[in-house]
Structure formats: structure tokens, C-alpha cells
Amino acid sequence: MSDGEQPYDYTEGASAIEINQVLEARTRRRRDSQVGSAYDDDGSGAVFGGPSAGIVPSSVSTMHYDRPWGRRRSSDAFSRTSLHRQQSGESHRSGSMQRRYSTGDDASEVFSDTGALSDAGDESASMGRSRSRTKRRSRHQASPESPSQTKGMFDNLASLFSSNRAPAPPSRQTSRRGSRVSSRRSSVAISDRDAEQYSSGEERWGYSSAEEDESMDRVEVNGVGSGPGSDFEVTRPTTPTATLPLLGMHGDPFFGDTRIDIEVTSRPSSPPPPPGPPSRQTIVLVDEDMSLRFTGFEIVRWKQWLWRAGTIASLGSLALAGHWSPRLWLRWVARERAFKDLQDGLIVVETPFRTLILEFLRTFDYPYPASTAFTPSIAVTSPSQLNGNGGASPRPPSGNLDVLKMVEHRYTRYLLDPKLGLFASIRDWRDPAWTKIPLLKAGLTTETRSQRHTLFGNNVIDIEAKSTLALLVEEVLHPFYMFQIASIILWSIDDYYYYAFCIALISAISIGSTLIETKQTIERMREMSRFSCPVKILCDGNWKTIESSELVPGDIVDLINPPLALFPADLVLLSGDAIVNESMLTGESVPVSKIPIREEQLTRFSENGEIDADVAKCFLYSATKVVRIRGDAAGASQPQALGLVVRTGFNTTKGSLVRSMLFPKPMGFKFYRDSMRFILFLAGLAGLGFMASAVQFVELGVKWHTIVLRALDLITVVVPPALPATLSIGTSFAISRLRKANIFCISPNRVNVGGKVNVVCFDKTGTLTEEGLDVLGVRCLDRSSDRFGEMYSDVHDLPSGSGKAQFLYALATCHSLKLVDNEIIGDPLDAKMFEFTKWTLEEGQAGLPARKGDSHRIGDRPTALVQTIVRPPGSSGFRLEDALKAGTRHAHFLELGVIRTFEFVSALRRMSVIVKRLKSSSMEVYVKGAPEVMTDICEPDSFPQDYADLLGYYTKRGYRVIAIAGKSIEGLSWLKAQRMKREQAESGLRFLGLIIFENKLKPSTTGAIHVLRAAHITCRMVTGDNPRTAVSVARECGIVSQSAHVFYPTFIAGNAQTRESKLEWSSVDDELLKLDDYSLKPVAPPLHHTTDSIDILYQDYAIVVSGDVFRWMLNNAPLETLQRMLVKAQIFARMSPDEKHELVERLQSLGYIVAFCGDGANDCGALKAADVGLSLSEAEASVAAPFTSQNPEITCMIEVIKEGRAALVTSFSCFKYMALYSLIQFTTITLLYSFASSLGDFQFLYIDLFIIIPIAVFMGRTHAYPRIHPTSPTSSLVSKKVLSSIIAQVLITSGVQFWAFFWTRRQEWYKPPVADSGSDKLETFNYENTVLFLVSSFQYILVAAVFSIGPPYRKEIWTNGFLMFSIIALAAFSTFVLLFPPQGVALVLDLMEIPASAKATLLFVVALNVVVSSLAEKWEVLSQVITFFQRRWRSKRPRRIRDGKLYKAVEGAMQ
């Protein structure tokens, strides 16, 4: 179309009034993102189709399942519901959706409220549909904490979310679960047997039946009114989080917290709360999947002064102890007190990871009504729960406030309700007036903006930048550095000046480098988080421009002028439409459209805060990119696009993301926990050694202060200060090697975890297969033979159909593509399909030409009445007015206008459009969707005879097949098309053909899968594609054997929304082969069948599960069946992002160490939840993954596993080496202490700096072995293999030293040392010292060679050039010093001259030591002895599966 040419008016004479009436009716209709409303939606607002069109971003929404009683994976005793996200179209079904409370082994009441949402106008009666909607409540309970109930920062900036699980009894049937989309809501559950009993008995909980507390955080409080005399029952069930410990241990900031696979540890009970108003409160933060315990404490002044005096008297030791153990400080200085009574108090915040954080209570002036701060959305509890007066409904506080008390924890403000004495999160704040859109468009007043600015602060995500001094103090006060400082002071007092200076210099360099890196990291985070731009808001009825940092909730923002690149806050779209890129949240690079919110949606959001699939289509998330914003021209002099600010600062979606990066959930490893325990064991050993030496010191008359120094020095010998640092050496080198392979790690702790991975889940498209889809060709009908015609790979070869509904026209119009800046954007599949047609696309124009008799101006008409216009290639030279003239010769001019779009709905698995051809008297409806659903909406006689055969042919070979259908409706006008219901449009269709897409495997996929399977690492495919296509790709790449039977479940009774449904498991290749629906074992085939059931062994079949079946089994299947499905299923198809996340957590609950590899799109939740998440995408989604690969091949997962194993083995080797170094030196010192002797200053210096440090550093440089071994290395220091190795080497080296000590004393040339009772120093110049020093110098070197394990996890030791050079050079120097000691060296090292024969004897013994140690390590002699006795002992006892290996028990039961 030439410039200036007026477009064709597809409205066919409809007036502006009629058009506006249609559009107003359209906005009242419900979107088809829900199944219950799928057929009565016009789909006008959405731009893009595809499975993710209605997905609520993972960071914002959560899909809740009450977990079956399963095992616990984390060290805390928290029992929490798994929180995950829900896909559009599958969250709300008809029927009740129940919220439940689950507590311990008991269950309590179900609260459900079912209501139907009716459509406006004539659509209200459509098919009698109704949607059940649970009215969300936060139940806040007050109860005393009985002892029987109580159970028990920055470490890595970019570590993200992990999950814990609740324990489960051995029940065959799991409790019924409800699922729903929520933002910051808690899910509560009870057993079904109690549901009916309590369905109308809410008074038992102290609530009236009409009460609705809409707080978004569930809280539980302890206070008055919960005694035996109160109306409120204290024996009622409470949520599992009510049993959080009051005060626990700090997670170690150096090693991180520990991951205990399946272990529940008991904890000391906390004392009961004091009488009076509540002083304890548990807040469940559902969006962060964790709970917080608030406890109020008030500082007692006289105790504080006593503590200060004790600190001075102890030279700061008491203060240091209080810093490391806040529990100790609280016991001494503070007392628990009710929140509302606190004056000079603090709030103790306890996380589920045993971390205590002290936050001081802040008070600020707030001369505004209480109702402005404590809206119904953040009301926390009912007064009746505190004083037992009955079931009064909660009411917001009334009257003006003078001051407001607040505690800010991790950038989230919690306000103290002065009436109830409880805290409420300000993130939950919503204005009750957010119900009427016309009233909202008036904006706020200056006074209201001032009040809300006081309440919420600036709209900035400003990370606190600590001063260098504060960071220095924080670093130095770490136990590791404090131990080093104490050791340096001790050595200085003991005149070890040179050694003390060297260690101090190394520590200073380490602290300095850490400070520089921390400052740089904080600054990068600050730069990434800070954002400000000019925005125009409506204030006091006038538009004014302000900085976005001044925005407050309730502001009306002009989204067009000034133009925005990123949204500065979380907003709701009130008018206009937008296309945004939400890849920061979902990882999905396909832009999504946003439509104006309707009043009923806004009211629902205001009441309960839900960002469900409907509201998400109107929600503009902070920091998401603006692709395009268009204004709504109806009734305005110029187009307007308005947004309502609903959340600011850290309360926004971006703020939640930044907060999760600043405060990640600890992800430790069992190795670190065991290492700390071993260090404590060494410290205890040092104490025993000194006790033995102290007796000898006293007998020898050594002075007491010398004895004390020797005792402290022995601790520094046995517990070397460099031990913690050496444990991270292997990890550092592994990260460096991964970086060279273009694999980047942002969570070093995950490297070692990668060495234990035993299950790898792969996304399909873009991960196993190539990134994009290519059109292989199309198959249309050959009407003459009633079969499919040949495949056409070129659109020009496509034959014309007989009717008006043409296959080519469907390909050109049935999509959701948009044109932005002359670039077609949208779903990649749609883009490939449209590219195949070679047509051109144009969006509907903003204005339409006026016609005679039309009394309305063009500007009164809404925009884009015709959504899309497409033309065939070569039509640009034709003029539209020529084609419209009567009798024109340009009748072949072709233009198709998309009048209406019914967008893609994942539950329906199809989309459709209504299309009008230029100058045509009819309109056509085209539908594109999954081939399986076409049989329900097409005329049976329109299908060719070979439909099923051809479909099976392509799907079994891994092709993606899309079916096309259409029909023509004569005389359909524009107005009628706008009023047509979806079920009317998508019925009576004629099948037109198939379009086949090819998704090729990546060249390296098959080889990588074979490598992983050869290593006995289970591979799973998790995809959103068709199950048959997934099976084909799995067979092609080797995830499933070509000869294996693959069984697929189908519902033979009920459906995915029916609890009593029944599944049938049939073979994909032979439907006569079945699985038992409970045991999932093959059943006997029919008698006439050729296959014998006994031939189908455990390893001979696999299972494919679709997303709807997976979700149904989570909610309704017996526990044993669910566990067997999780263990046996190798293919998961049609999985939504939230189901991928849930799958990862379920596998972890069985004891698997799970790795997830995806391309970043829709995999955020799974990447966060997995033990090892590897993103092949460089988009923002990679922030959610610990590992990111620039090489988009799954071979990088092999590298991560290999390097993880190498790093894990290196960590063990370094630890064993440091342990042997300590014990060898401990043996030497203990023997020398027996006659008041010790090693000299330079002897210590030579051993530590010239032997230990180089070897410990270079041990980690050994590269990973090229192949992955079928068994993974151990991860426990208390394992038989590790302990037996350490004990064997200790026995050998100690034996050699004892022999050398006593052998020396028997020699003729030996002269006993002369004791100097008047000296404060221990004698160092004697024969025992010389012999033990020379022998131990060799032992430090030989154990390094012995512990430098090569295959099967690392390369041979000689491939490590630095280590080999160090060992050879040090061994040569030690031999030289033994045989030919230069006078200067002997003088510095305090060596005495010994005869040549003695030197030869010592050299022979050292060589013998090397041989014996090497053979003992290689043959594992001690380990085999222990194994022999273990087998004899176990043979007399029944075998059981160890904790954490539940999947092995399930596998054993299925074999």
C-alpha cells in the first residue's frame, strides 16, 4: 500500500457508537485463559499465543500443592508446602478448590468458598460454565509453644532458591490437594476426613463465618488468651511452622549451611512465651518459600553494663563470643517482651536455616489515620485470638497515629499494629479504593502522596553500601581469621617472629583481596539495581513530571509521554495496550501483550492480592522492557496509556529478584559439615596430647606460663589456620577450568555438588534439539482420493482448495504475530509458518476513514479494529482504490484482514481467527492447533482416511505437527463477528491439512547422552512438546533405548480435574501391553499376544508422563505409585514451567542429586530448584542458574560433572593432606614435648611455607579425568574409604616417627640434651629434634603424592606439572639436607651432625615409608579389613536403605 493511501474499512458501515458498544462489551467478557471461560472470550487483547501467553512470571506467582508426606532434605525442621508457579489455563477449574492447613500428623479445617464468575450480557449463560474461586484467607493463630512442638550474607551473591520438604508417613494414599495461582499467599491443608466436619464450623478457630482476613502473609502468634480458661482452644492443630526454634545456630558464613539429604534433627525446646500480649510471631513468606520467626526482646540496662564490664575484663573475648552466638548475648543482656511494649528494644528474626538476625525497632512520626497504613489487606489477626472474648471480626485500627513502629528486615518493612501488637508486611499493602477505574484515573492528592511516601519511602532499589571499615571488621571477626590472629599473637609471644610475620602477611593479602572483591560486587549490584527516569503523574488533577524514585502506590502514570524503556515500578495497565519483554522474570524471550484491566479484576486484586493469569495480562512488572505502548484513542483528544502504581522499591518484582540474590538460601554440602566436625576432633586430640605432655612438663620443672604457651601452640599445630582456605582450592581451579570452556559459575558451592549428580533433566527444544523449528513441509488433502496429498516444501506448489476457506490463507492469518518497527515479532513457530508463506504483514491502522453520514470524528474510533492485514508477495504495486472500483480489472488483488483473534489457550491447545477477504461477502474462520483436538471441532467427513496413520508417522519420528481447519460463513458482518462466541466459531469446521515442523537434534546430543548413561547417570527429558514427539526424540538421542517399551497413561475414567479418575498405562507401540496402575509393573498380555510378560524386565521399559497426568498424580495418586512414577519415568511431556520446578523438587525428595539443563526459556524455576542448574542461555534467565554456558551444547553438563567430581576429590585430598600434616606435626611435637623440646622457628617456617602451602595449592591443579566413571566419589568424610585412608596413613607415619625417636636414643653417638631449668624456652638443638625433623620432612611430601588421587576422577599425578616439580624439588632438597647439609642451612634449621651410617638408615626407612604408604592407599588394606567385618555383621541383620536413598528402595521394589 502506498503512503497516504487510506486502508479498507473492514467494519462495513458500523458506526463509531456501535463499535464502541462492541468493544465495551468485549472488555466485560472474561478472557479465555481459563478453561471455564474458554469458549466465551473474544481474545481481543492478547498479542501473542503460545503456551506461555498467560503464564504468570515465576518470581511473582506460586502454584501450591500440599506435599505428600515425604522425607526432608534440609537440616532445618521446617515443614513447608512446596511453592511453585502455575500455567495459564490450568489453574482454575470448576469445582471447589480448597485451602488447607496441615499440621504434623494431624489435620484441621478446610476453608473453601466456591463462586461462579458470570460474563456480562448474553455471555453469562454460555454453556452453563462456572468457575470456582477460593476466597483467600490468612489464618492467624495464637497458641503457646509447648516443648513437644519445638524443633529444631552475603555468602554467595547470585545463589538463588532451594527448597525443603516435609516428612511423610507410609500412607498409600496422599491427601487431596488443591492448586491455585497466587502472589504471596499461603497454602494450607487438612485431611479429607475432617473437611466435612469443619466445613461450617469456623467458630472453633475463633472466627465468625463471615470473617475474611485477607493478609498475604500467614502469621501465628503466641500470647494471652491461649490458656486453658480461654474460649480459644490451645490444643488445636497448628501449622508446622509454628514449631520453629526460637533461637538456633548460625549457618557458618564461610562454609555455608549443610545439606542433609534426609535427616530430621531434634532441637532443644524454647521456653514458653511470657504472659501478656504476643511477643512471638511466625510470618510465612510464600513468594520466598520460607518462614520468619519474630521475637521481641528488650535490653536490660544493668545487664548491658555488666556485659560491657565482662567484655573489658575478658579483653573482648566475651563480646566476640556474643557476636558469634547471638543467643548467648540475648540470654545475658535482653529479656523477651511483647512487641507493643517495646521501648528500647529489638526484634530477633530467625530464618529456617538457623540464622539469627537482630533488627532494632524503629519509630518515626506518622500523623495520619491508622487506616492508611493498616488496610484490610495487611490486617494480621483477630483480637479474639489474643483475649479469648469470642469471634469478633478483625477491623483495621481507627483514629490518627502520632508515631509508627517498624522493623526493616532485608529491605522489607514490617509495621507494628498498635492495636493488635503484631507485625504486618508492608509488601501486602493495597488500597481498598482500588475498585473503580474512573475514580482511580483522577490521581492522588499531594497530601496523600506525602503520607504514602512516609510509609513506603522512595521508589528505589538502593542496596546499602557498607564502608570499608565495616567490611573489614566483618571479615576479620570471622572465626577463621580470629583463629589466625590469635595464632599470630601466640607465635609472637613465643618469639616465632619470622613465622608470625609471614602468616600475618598472607592473611592481610587474603583479607585485602576479599574486601576489594566484595566492594566491587556490591557496587555492581548497586549499579544493576538502581534505576530512575522521568515520569508524568496525575496529581491534584494536573499532570506533572517527576523522577520515578518519587512514585508511590496509587499514582497514575502516563506510559507514553515521556517514553519509557523500562517500567519503573509494578503497575496495572488501566488504558491502552502494551507489548513487553518479560525475559528478566520468565526467561521467555518472546514478547507478551498487556491489555487494560477490568474493574472486577482490579477489585479481586485489591481484595486478595492475587496475580492470577487474568491479572497477569494487565500487570506491568518492574524493570521489564517496553517493546511498544499504544494509547486508547476512544473519547480522548490524544491516545492515552495509563498505569496504576501498585508496588514500589523492594516490594516490586525486581526488588524480590534483587533480594533473592542478596540473601540466597544456603546451599551447603555434607562435606563441609563433616570437615568442621573433624576439626573439632583434631582440637580434642590436641587437648589429649597436651594433657599427656603437661605431666612431663611438670616433672621437668617447666614454668607454668611456658606450659600454657605450649598448650596453645599445640592447638595451632593440630588445627592449622590454613585448613579452611585449602578446602576451596580445588573448587577455585575447577571454576577456572570451566571458565576456559566458556562455562561460568556464580555459586562456587555448587561445583562440589556437581560431583554427586545422579539425575540430569534436559529441556528438549533448544537444549537437546536445535534452537528453532524449520518447516519441513505441508500436507493438504487430495479430495479425489480422500487421502493426504504429497508433501509440499514450497508454498508456490501448494494447490488451491475448492472452497473459500483456503489452506494457504490459514497459514497466512492464523497466528498472533505483530509488526514492531518493521520487524515481525511473536512466537517462533508462528514466525516460521508465516515466513513459509512469503506473504507480507501489516498491523491495523490507528484510524479509519470516515464515511458519509457518520457523525463521529475519526479520532473517536478505537485503534486497530482490524488487528492484522496480510497480502501475498508482489502486491505492493497495486493500489487499493483501483481494486475497490466497480468493474476493476485488478480483481486478482488479494488482501486478508484479521477481524478477530481467539488466542491460544494451553488447555484447549488451539487458537483461531476470523478473517475477511477484500470485497468478499463472507468471512472465514481458521483454527490452528494440536492434531488430537481437531477431531472434536471438525466435521468427521472432512478427515482423510489416512489421518491417524500419517499423524503417527510424523510424531513417532520426532516431527512437530500442527493441524489446520477452517470454514466459511456467508453474510457474516463485522459486528456479528465481534459478538460471536468462541464455541460457535470453533465448530463445524473442515479439516484443511497439516504443517510439519522439523526440530533437529544437536550434533553432540546423542554422544553426550550415551556418555552420561554409560556413567550410570539417569537422563530425563522434560519438555512442553507432544508426548509422542518427545518419545521419538528420546529414542533418537538415546535417553530411551530403541527397543524399550514406552508406556503412556491415559484417563479411562474422569479427567485431570477429577479426584476419582482412573489411569490406564498402555504401550506407545502396542496398546495391548499394559502396566498395573498401582505397581507400574507390566501385566500379562492377552493370551494370543506374542510377547511374554516375563520378558519385559525393569530395564526393558520406560514411562512417559504428560503434565496433566503428573499434576493429577501429585494430588491424588497413592504415594507408592507416585514414587514409582518419579523413579521410572524418563520422559515428561507437556510440562509447564511450574511443573518442571515441582518435578525437580519431587526427585530431590527421593534422595536424588538433580541437575537441570535448559536454554533459559521457561526453565527459571527448575534451574533455581535443582542442585546443579545449567543454563544454555545468555539471557537474564541465566542469573537463576549457578552455571551458565556460552556453548549451547549439553556436553557442557558433562564438563560440569567431571569438574565437580575432580573438585570434590581434590577437596578430600587437600583435607586429608592437611589432616595428615597436622597429625604428623602433632606426633613430632608430642614426642619432643616429652623431654621439654620443640621445633625451631625456622623449622616451622620451612615446613609450613616451603612444603605445605606449595603442595596444598598445586594439588588442586590436577585436571579432571576425560571419562566419567560409573560410580561417583564419596561426599562424606566419615565414610569408610576416607577414614580408613586417614587412619592407615596416621598409623604408618606415626609408627615411623616413634621408631626414629627411640632408635635415635639407642645409638652410640646419641647425647642427651642438657636441660636448662632457668630458661623459658624449650630446647630445639638436639638429636631427637634433628632426626624427627628430617623424617617428617619426607613424610609431608610423600603423603601429598599418596593422596594425589588420579583416575578415575582426576588425571594421573604426573600430568600436574606444578605438583610434580614441587614434590621432586622438595624431595631432592630434603635428601640433600639429610645427606649433605650445608653449614648455613644446618645452622638456620637447628640441625645436629649425625653419622653417615645413620643418614643411610634414615633414608632407607623413608623409602620404606613411601612404599608402604603407597601400597596401603592403593590396595585400601584397612578399608578391606573393615569391609570384611561389616559383611559378617550385616549378614546377621536385615538390610535397610540408608537415609537419603529412598529412590533405591523404590527401584528395588520394582525389580
Characteristic terms for this protein:
about 1450 residues; alpha+beta; eleven-stranded mixed beta sheet; nine-stranded antiparallel beta sheet; 47 strands; about 35% helix; globular
Q: Can you give a write-up of this model?
A:
This protein is an alpha+beta fold. The protein is built from 43 helices and 47 strands. An eleven-stranded mixed sheet has the order 26-47-46-45-27-39-44-43-40-41-42, sandwiched between helices. A nine-stranded antiparallel sheet has the order 29-28-38-37-36-35-34-33-32. Helix 26 runs parallel beside helix 30. The longest helix is centred in the last third of the chain and has 39 residues. The chain is globular and about 120 Å long. The two termini are 69 Å apart. The relative contact order is 0.09. About 19% of the residues have low confidence.
